[in-house]
Amino acid sequence: MANSIVACGTSGNFFISGTSVVGTNYCAGSVEVPTGITNIALCAFATAIGGNCYTIKGNAITTVSLPTSLRTISTYGF
Fold first, then answer.
1. Where are the strands (E) in 1-78, listed by range?
2. Is 64:73 a contact under the CB 8 Å cutoff?
3. Where does residue 26 fall: left (phi above 0), alpha (psi -120 to 50 degrees), or beta otherwise?
4. Are the beta carbons of 74 and 46 closer than 8 angstroms?
5. Which one, of 57, 38, 39, lies nearest residue 47 by Cα?
6. For the segment 31-78, what is each residue's pLDDT rounded down to a tens digit?
């Protein structure tokens, strides 16, 4: 997969690099991770500050759909 930006259900989006979800921008509502994704990276749906992951106000994910291609959800992926 190429690098891309995927819209979340209500607002915000998340970022894909290769076959990994690598970050988010205030994702809210439903999240549908596309087929072909194999990894959800460290802090992908959280915020990394100084090497630590934090859930920030505004992240209001209500449902998550994961593809059968997914193999790894890294520590603090959500």
1. 4-7, 11-17, 20-32, 39-40, 47-49, 52-54, 60-65, 72-73
2. no
3. left
4. no
5. 57
6. 999 999 999 998 898 877 777 887 765 558 899 999 999 999 998 888
